[in-house]
Amino acid sequence: MHTTSEFLHSQLKQFFGFDSFKGQQEEVIKHLIDGNDSFVLMPTGGGKSLCYQLPALVMPGVAIIISPLIALMKNQVDAIRGFVVERDGIAHFLNSSLNKAQIQEVKDDLMSGQTKLLYVAPESLTKEENIAFLKQLTISFYAVDEAHCISEWGHDFRPEYRRIYPIVQEIGKAPVIALTATATPKVQNDIQKNLGMSDARVFKTSFNRDNLYYEIRTKVNTEREIIKFIKANQGKSGIIYCLSRKKVEEVAQLLVVNGIKALPYHAGLDPTTRASNQDSFLMEGVDVIVATIAFGMGIDKPDVRFVIHYDIPKSLESYYQETGRSGRDGGEGQCIAFYSYKDIQKLEKFMQGKPISEQEIGRQLLMETVSYAESSLCRRKVLLNYFGEDYNIDNCGSCDNCLYPKKQFDGKDDVALVLELISTMKEQFKTEHLANIMAGVTNSIIKSYNHHKLELFGIGKSKGIRFWMAVIRQALIHHLLFKDIEKYGLISCTPEGLKFLENPYTVMLIEDREFVESDDDDETSTPGHARASGGGGDEALLSLLKDLRHSVSKKLNLPPFVIFSDPSLDDMSLQYPLTIEELKNCQGVGEGKAKKFGKEFVELIAKYVLENEIDRPMDLVVKSVVNKSAIKVHIINGIDRKLPLEDIAESKGIEMEDILNELEAIVNSGTKINIDYFIRQTIDDDKVDEIYQYFRTEAVSDSLREATEELGKGYTEDEIRLVRIKFLSELGN
């Protein structure tokens, strides 16, 4: 077999029209053609597919490409057929989407020697009839695409991938090439072990994508922020990732209502719609696709200019893979993720009921995501460190932390204390436990180990848990500590860390970012669901609006926040609504509130705009989707029939928390509801009076956190929320 550089370049030009190889492509191809196993770690857009496509075309026999998604196979087969014109049989896929006649056509082309690449799903590979058929063919090599699916530490774990090796042995021995765009050292080891290719040569390209800009934003006013961003990048192609199908549909609908060409994509759509929406995006029929993680694996659209994560992903592997779909042509790629710790808590809930080991892995991966989101270090440095790569540039100039750096401080003493603690405890504990000890937090786990009696317990109490989590995180980056993934994240000292302990030196650390948590999720298109301040408005107008709110509250004898919350006033000072209709687009202002309290406020704003010759940013006014939620209707009907809320939740297969979220959204939108019957059944009258009076006379805002702290431990969060719903419904609507 010819493997000279001249031959490979001529074939590259002939089949793909390229004059030169990218990165390590040529080396990988030569190694595979020579009959050797290869492990290819290459970032998204690095040209992984060519590493097996070209060898398949020039080697005798057929290459078996094991691929995880049917949509991806079709995409790849179409691409190959586009390169090798007039030879449709050159590439085929074999999966459950084919009928008997189509399967026979594939087999005929394979037997005739026409087909050079056969794409199969691992499920199809395991079928006895397919194994028997493939044994008759000359196999050039096996390619395992998206190989991270083999590892339970990978973001798309597929148990079926674990069976590839024995089946390959049964079909017939041939070289194996495993390819992935994302693999930590642990995942890499898992893949090689499972495929029986421990001796394979590893080709690793830097995971750094220097054309990508990374930014984490607080999850407040998320939908408005997204619309503002897209309108500022008019005509550019982008992907928005959401965790749930429901949220995908909602966001896509909201974008369309606001004049943005967008379509949804998720596994719940019928195959025809899904394929059509994908094609519309690829062919530029729409600018934005809103999707779950079902979209994008292997999708080759080079000019995606932004990737937005509405919800933070469940692992850094997912995040890297998904952000990697932007800027594949080397042009601009903006990667914006919205973060709230509440999303992390939701993801933790999803893991309940799974095997303990799976939960441990899931939590470990989630904590890595939290570390990335909350860190003030260079995003590239954190991301690349996670994949086992050092990034030694102090300021990348292309992430939010480097462009807007936080204050640095000498952490020598703090790091020394942490290292001393780890040494004392024989390196047997994880980050959170160590941070709890330093911060003096007493919980059941701390007590069970008697760690509250340690000399170092509470030595850094004044600085808090977050501070010590950040110190440990940054000590890992500085290679003073090591996290053992095999043991679910136990922290130990490195040789360098032990040297530091003997002779401490200056270590510059960066203060962590503070994320303002909202009391309610920004999870609905209903105006007014989020409670944290967006800021950035007209301070002079804001002051006038607060004065007006104060006077209205005195006149009506109501707490000011019942009239309009602080975030609502902030938003008014940003948007300058001049009509009741426009006022309804402000955060926390539903139809009921707008009609009941809005007249004086829009009159004040109109006067202010006129007097100060304000040029209003009308493009920032976000139209909301009329909420026709069947669940909301179901809940209201159930309440009218005085059904217990638990029964209403059960009938819809949702949790009690979801019911409370929906009730809060209903009340915020200005609809009056009466849940007295349920409150009387479930909460003592004294408690109800106490909570109600707190909101009526003591509360300065409707913050759940403040209420919980003020009322004390005798009151559950659900009790406070239920009475708050009653209070806001009676007085605010």
Whole-number mean pLDDT: 85
Q: How far apart lie the N and C ends?
A: 80 Å
Q: Into which percentage range does the β-strand content fall? A: 5-15%
- The overall strand count is 17
CATH architecture of the largest domain: 3-Layer(aba) Sandwich
- Tally of DSSP helical segments: 34
Q: Which CATH class of the largest domain? A: Alpha Beta
CATH superfamily (homologous) name of the largest domain: P-loop containing nucleotide triphosphate hydrolases
Rg, alpha carbons: 29 Å
Helical fraction equals 40-55%
Globally, the shape reads globular
Strand order of the largest sheet: 3-4-2-5-6-1-7
The main sheet comes to:
7 strands, parallel
In words, what does this structure look like?
The structure is a single chain. By secondary structure, this protein is of the alpha/beta class. The longest helix has 21 residues. It has 34 helices and 17 strands. α23 crosses α25 and α32 packs across α34. It is globular, with a radius of gyration of 29 Å. It has five domains: 200 residues, 3-Layer(aba) Sandwich (Rossmann fold); 137 residues, Rossmann fold; 95 residues, Winged helix-like DNA-binding domain superfamily/Winged helix DNA-binding domain (Arc Repressor Mutant, subunit A, Orthogonal Bundle), CATH 1.10.10.10; 82 residues, HRDC domain (DNA polymerase, domain 1); 103 residues, Orthogonal Bundle (Arc Repressor Mutant, subunit A). 48% of the residues lie in helices and 11% in strands.
